[in-house]
Known about the structure:
By secondary structure, this protein is α+β, with helices and mostly antiparallel strands. It has helices at 3-7, 10-25, 46-52, 96-105, and strands spanning 29-33, 38-43, 58-64, 70-77, 89-92. Strand 1 and strand 2 form a beta hairpin. The N and C termini lie far apart (31 Å).
Amino acid sequence: MLSLDQYTGRHEAAAVRRLIGHALAQDWAVSVNDGEEWTVKQSRDRTEILAALATTGGDTLRFRDSEGKTMGVMVLIYQGGENPGDEVVSDYTDNEAMEYLYRRTFPA
């Protein structure tokens, strides 16, 4: 069982899966920092990325485009329980790319 499913609420897990799916659909690579180290670096492997998430109380995700340019960062904080999941993204880089990714994941 993935840590994402074990240590987060079901709505949080679903939101994070959508977030990763939207990033990969843009052909972006994802790096995962668990608060201590980069456990995944520039991956486009959905399974690898999801397996690295929620091993701690929060993760920092860095997104890069197909040419390796950094698109931005998102900080995830896991609360668990039955919260709606729309607060799992604690912060993100204030730019068009991250705003797009956030709005795709959490449409108004």
